[in-house]
Amino acid sequence: MRSPSFSALPARALRALVVLALAAGGATTTSAAHARPRTAVPAGAQASAQHTAAVAAKPYMGWSSWSMQSSHYPGLNPDGDYSYLTEAHVLQQTDALAAKLKKYGYDYVNIDAGWWRDNAWKPEYDQYARQKADPTRFPRGMKAVADDIHAKGLKAGIYLPVGLEKEAYNDGKSPIWHADGCTTADIVYDDLRTTNGWDSSYKLDFSKPCTQKYVDSQAQMLADWGYDFLKLDGVGPGSGKSGDQYDNVADVAAWQKAIAATGRSIHLELSWSLDIGHAADWKKYANGWRIDTDVECYCNTLVSWENSVDDRFDDAPAWTSHAGPGGWNDLDSLDVGNGAMDGLTKAERQTYATLWAIAKSPLFTGDDLTKLDSYGTSLLTNKEVIAVDQADAPPAAPVTPSDPQQVWAAKNPDGTSTVALFNLADKPASVTADWTALGFTGKARVRDLWNHENLGTRTNKITEALPAHGSRLFTVTPQGRPVTWSGIEAEAGGNTLAGNASLADCSACSGGKKVGNLYLGGKLTVNDVRVDRAGTYQIKVAYISGDSRPALISANGGGAVSHKFPSTGDWGTVNTVYVPVTLKAGSNTITFDSGSGYAPDIDRIDVPKSS
Q1: Residue 14 in 3-state DSSP?
Q2: Is the pTM of this model over 0.85?
Q3: Which residues, other chains included, contact 556 with Cβ-Cβ below 8 Å and sequence gap of 6+?
Q4: Are 335 and 342 spatial neighbours (Cβ–Cβ below 8 Å)?
Q5: pLDDT digits over 39-86, tens only?
Q6: Which domains does the chain show, CATH number per domain?
Q7: Alpha carbons within 13 A on the beta-carbon side of 310
Q8: Is the CB of residue 500 less than 8 Å from the CB of residue 523?
Q9: Inter-residue contact 595 to 552 (CB < 8 Å)
Q10: What distance in Å separates the CA atoms of residue 419 and residue 429, rounded to the nearest whole number?
């Protein structure tokens, strides 16, 4: 079925409609789902830690075809939606990647959805129900394309949807490769229940012995063709679906097992909006996982700020602790190189690239590499920023609440900190990084990574005036002294609870308890907060919140300021942010008020002993 034109619809409506339009066999990606009971995984499907770490020791870098395939930018898809994807275009981008970006670490060329479908989205399969290259898009077949990519010293990536595609079922009559007596009828549920983000596949039944053999046959086909990367799409829980029917943990485990059996190192990337409740499964069986919906806007540019670039600032923090060697949080394509075609201002392009780098997302662009502008080239080839993404250091996380002005930071093994300032507001604003939130006070040396400039020594903080949607990125080298803190548990007997607020057990909390039920007027007042002198203090707040929630924070009964706390991923994980509060010398009260909504649960606060 040919995908309709979406150019007249709002960006967020496009994503939903694209999913419906492609449910008959297309491919894209969209929103999140919640945790569900886990299905059994195939026996022997344990991932090899050594293998995964070797494959994805660092976030991968490269190019993907999907951004240009999905755009209505004039001239990109003249033969209909998604028609950009051809052998000629892939090899054109391969040549450009090799010439312009390879020396900076970009080495994957990833072919996305549609390589086995014609421009009317009609598929091709071999006699074993495996996807087969469309002869018009890829006349020489997929192995020849991989060979040409490898000839440039690059790695080849390919795409498949999870499950058995409906068109491949063939009334259950197609045999399974190297599996005597097995047919497509023997690998799915008898009721032909559907799965994946578009319900375009039948769900594989891994209680049947033939089923793993089908996945093995697909993996061996990709290995024989010479592919180094597989994007497995529509995976659940996630991809806009939840429930047992859409639980594809067993599929992912089967793919890990099948890839290992081929003897070829193949990076396994999962898409899209994966359920964080199954983060342990994604880490166990895969090398990367899309944490969010598509970054593409399905409009007349590749992306737009409001479509979903800005969403990542809310959605990425909960995933930070799950990334590391062997598996990374994937924020999707980095489309900052083509100017007008990207659909962003220069400030937005830099901010986009800054977040991807500090979050240690894979850096793969969907731009037309033959038409990079000078500014886009400078963003994609900045060695100091690339080093932040590729360094042996943790991803950054917000150290301030998720307000329009934000500070993100990560401590590096050499004692420095990577610090990013973001102004997500629609008008210019100043943003301050206080050294207290980095764990020290006094002086620090600051280097501007985008501009390759040493800014000298700054005392206690750095403040920058940023344009709308603007950013700065620094390395901060402390020269001062560590912060000393005075902590108060939320459940301390001297505190005051009001409204619905109540104590609850919390195994992850510092004192084994927390204050929760802060909703519809629920309040926690921390009493007798003592400081030696008046001033504005960066209060460290330890909290738990399964979703992003605001709280009204005030001192001594004064005016309250609303701050939005990032999700910690679930209701059993504690994170911290730093909130500025003006205190008087001596005893103070600090109140957390839910107002008319729902606030996070509070574990404790820590107050620096000097402002």
Answers
A1: helix
A2: yes
A3: 583, 584, 588, 589
A4: yes
A5: 454 444 444 444 555 899 999 999 999 999 999 999 999 999 999 999
A6: 11-395 (3.20.20.70), 398-482 (2.60.40.1180), 485-608 (2.60.120.260)
A7: 21
A8: no
A9: yes
A10: 18
